[in-house]
Design brief:
Elements lengths: L3 E3 H4 L1 E6 L13 H20 L2 E7 L3 E2 L8 E11 L3 E12 L4 E15 L10 E3 L3 H20 L1
Parallel strand pairs: 1-8
Antiparallel strand pairs: 2-5, 3-7, 4-7, 5-6, 6-7
Pfam family, one: 4HBT
Protein name: Acyl-CoA thioesterase
Keywords: Hydrolase
Length: 154
Protein backbone atom coordinates (compact mmCIF):
# COMPACT_ATOMS: atom_id res chain seq x y z
CA UNK A 1 0.00 0.00 0.00
CA UNK A 2 1.32 3.45 -0.86
CA UNK A 3 1.35 6.30 1.63
CA UNK A 4 -0.54 8.77 -0.59
CA UNK A 5 -3.36 8.33 -3.08
CA UNK A 6 -4.74 11.09 -5.28
CA UNK A 7 -8.42 12.00 -5.13
CA UNK A 8 -8.78 11.32 -8.87
CA UNK A 9 -7.47 7.78 -8.38
CA UNK A 10 -10.74 7.09 -6.55
CA UNK A 11 -13.03 8.86 -9.04
CA UNK A 12 -15.70 6.47 -10.30
CA UNK A 13 -18.55 7.02 -12.75
CA UNK A 14 -21.31 4.51 -13.50
CA UNK A 15 -24.30 4.74 -15.79
CA UNK A 16 -27.65 3.00 -15.63
CA UNK A 17 -30.50 3.17 -18.12
CA UNK A 18 -33.71 3.51 -16.12
CA UNK A 19 -35.90 0.58 -17.13
CA UNK A 20 -39.33 -0.55 -15.86
CA UNK A 21 -37.97 -2.92 -13.16
CA UNK A 22 -36.43 0.05 -11.31
CA UNK A 23 -39.43 2.40 -11.57
CA UNK A 24 -42.46 3.18 -9.46
CA UNK A 25 -46.04 3.45 -10.73
CA UNK A 26 -45.26 6.98 -12.01
CA UNK A 27 -42.47 5.74 -14.29
CA UNK A 28 -39.78 7.31 -12.11
CA UNK A 29 -36.75 5.72 -10.44
CA UNK A 30 -37.40 3.94 -7.16
CA UNK A 31 -35.45 5.61 -4.36
CA UNK A 32 -34.10 2.23 -3.30
CA UNK A 33 -32.72 1.56 -6.78
CA UNK A 34 -30.94 4.93 -6.80
CA UNK A 35 -29.49 4.27 -3.32
CA UNK A 36 -28.29 0.85 -4.51
CA UNK A 37 -26.46 2.40 -7.47
CA UNK A 38 -24.95 5.06 -5.19
CA UNK A 39 -23.71 2.46 -2.69
CA UNK A 40 -22.05 0.39 -5.42
CA UNK A 41 -20.37 3.41 -6.99
CA UNK A 42 -19.13 4.63 -3.59
CA UNK A 43 -17.82 1.15 -2.75
CA UNK A 44 -15.83 1.03 -5.98
CA UNK A 45 -14.36 4.48 -5.31
CA UNK A 46 -13.40 3.36 -1.79
CA UNK A 47 -11.78 0.13 -2.97
CA UNK A 48 -9.85 1.96 -5.70
CA UNK A 49 -8.58 4.35 -3.06
CA UNK A 50 -7.76 1.86 -0.31
CA UNK A 51 -6.56 -1.05 -2.41
CA UNK A 52 -8.62 -3.27 -0.10
CA UNK A 53 -12.15 -4.54 0.32
CA UNK A 54 -14.35 -1.83 1.82
CA UNK A 55 -17.75 -2.00 3.51
CA UNK A 56 -20.40 0.64 4.01
CA UNK A 57 -20.35 2.09 7.53
CA UNK A 58 -22.87 4.91 7.08
CA UNK A 59 -24.72 7.08 4.65
CA UNK A 60 -25.49 10.68 5.57
CA UNK A 61 -28.59 12.64 4.71
CA UNK A 62 -29.79 11.87 1.15
CA UNK A 63 -31.22 14.63 -1.00
CA UNK A 64 -33.60 13.54 -3.75
CA UNK A 65 -33.57 16.74 -5.79
CA UNK A 66 -35.48 15.71 -8.91
CA UNK A 67 -36.84 12.43 -10.32
CA UNK A 68 -35.21 10.23 -12.92
CA UNK A 69 -37.73 9.36 -15.61
CA UNK A 70 -38.00 6.00 -17.36
CA UNK A 71 -35.70 5.97 -20.40
CA UNK A 72 -33.28 8.49 -18.94
CA UNK A 73 -29.69 7.62 -18.13
CA UNK A 74 -28.67 7.87 -14.48
CA UNK A 75 -25.03 8.94 -14.13
CA UNK A 76 -23.58 8.17 -10.69
CA UNK A 77 -20.29 9.84 -9.72
CA UNK A 78 -18.27 9.15 -6.57
CA UNK A 79 -14.90 10.16 -5.16
CA UNK A 80 -13.03 10.01 -1.85
CA UNK A 81 -12.80 13.40 -0.16
CA UNK A 82 -11.54 12.57 3.35
CA UNK A 83 -10.09 9.72 5.39
CA UNK A 84 -9.61 8.59 8.96
CA UNK A 85 -7.24 5.85 10.03
CA UNK A 86 -9.45 3.06 8.60
CA UNK A 87 -12.43 5.05 7.29
CA UNK A 88 -13.04 6.65 3.92
CA UNK A 89 -15.56 9.46 3.23
CA UNK A 90 -17.06 9.46 -0.26
CA UNK A 91 -19.17 12.11 -2.03
CA UNK A 92 -21.78 10.67 -4.38
CA UNK A 93 -23.85 12.64 -6.88
CA UNK A 94 -26.40 11.41 -9.39
CA UNK A 95 -27.62 13.22 -12.45
CA UNK A 96 -30.18 12.31 -15.09
CA UNK A 97 -29.43 12.63 -18.77
CA UNK A 98 -32.00 12.51 -21.54
CA UNK A 99 -30.03 11.21 -24.52
CA UNK A 100 -32.74 12.30 -26.98
CA UNK A 101 -32.90 15.89 -25.76
CA UNK A 102 -29.29 16.23 -24.59
CA UNK A 103 -30.41 17.58 -21.20
CA UNK A 104 -28.76 16.92 -17.84
CA UNK A 105 -29.90 17.68 -14.29
CA UNK A 106 -28.79 16.84 -10.77
CA UNK A 107 -31.10 14.34 -9.08
CA UNK A 108 -29.55 12.95 -5.89
CA UNK A 109 -26.64 13.60 -3.52
CA UNK A 110 -25.20 12.03 -0.37
CA UNK A 111 -22.05 11.35 1.63
CA UNK A 112 -21.02 7.80 2.50
CA UNK A 113 -18.46 6.44 4.94
CA UNK A 114 -16.70 3.14 4.30
CA UNK A 115 -14.25 1.08 6.35
CA UNK A 116 -11.34 -0.68 4.67
CA UNK A 117 -10.84 -4.34 5.60
CA UNK A 118 -7.78 -6.57 5.49
CA UNK A 119 -7.80 -10.17 4.26
CA UNK A 120 -9.11 -11.33 7.67
CA UNK A 121 -12.06 -8.92 7.56
CA UNK A 122 -10.57 -6.59 10.18
CA UNK A 123 -10.38 -2.79 9.77
CA UNK A 124 -7.08 -1.77 8.21
CA UNK A 125 -5.23 1.50 7.67
CA UNK A 126 -5.97 3.52 4.55
CA UNK A 127 -3.58 5.75 2.59
CA UNK A 128 -3.44 9.50 2.99
CA UNK A 129 -5.51 11.54 0.52
CA UNK A 130 -3.71 14.08 -1.62
CA UNK A 131 -5.09 16.70 -3.99
CA UNK A 132 -2.44 17.58 -6.57
CA UNK A 133 -4.56 19.80 -8.81
CA UNK A 134 -6.98 22.69 -8.46
CA UNK A 135 -9.71 20.44 -9.86
CA UNK A 136 -9.12 17.86 -7.12
CA UNK A 137 -9.04 20.55 -4.45
CA UNK A 138 -12.30 21.97 -5.86
CA UNK A 139 -14.02 18.59 -5.62
CA UNK A 140 -12.78 18.15 -2.06
CA UNK A 141 -14.00 21.62 -1.09
CA UNK A 142 -17.42 20.92 -2.65
CA UNK A 143 -17.72 17.74 -0.57
CA UNK A 144 -16.76 19.53 2.66
CA UNK A 145 -19.26 22.30 1.83
CA UNK A 146 -22.00 19.69 1.35
CA UNK A 147 -21.04 18.06 4.66
CA UNK A 148 -21.17 21.41 6.46
CA UNK A 149 -24.54 22.21 4.87
CA UNK A 150 -25.95 18.88 6.01
CA UNK A 151 -24.65 19.45 9.52
CA UNK A 152 -26.40 22.83 9.52
CA UNK A 153 -29.68 21.16 8.53
CA UNK A 154 -29.52 18.71 11.45
Amino acid sequence: MTDDVRLMDSYTEMTELLLPNDTNNLGRALGGAVLHWMDICAAIASMRFAGNQCVTASMDHVDFISPIEMGEVAVVEAYVFDTGSTSIDVKVDVRAEDPREGTKRKTTSSLFTFVALDDDGKPTDVPDLVCESEAEEGLRTAAFDAKAEQAGDA
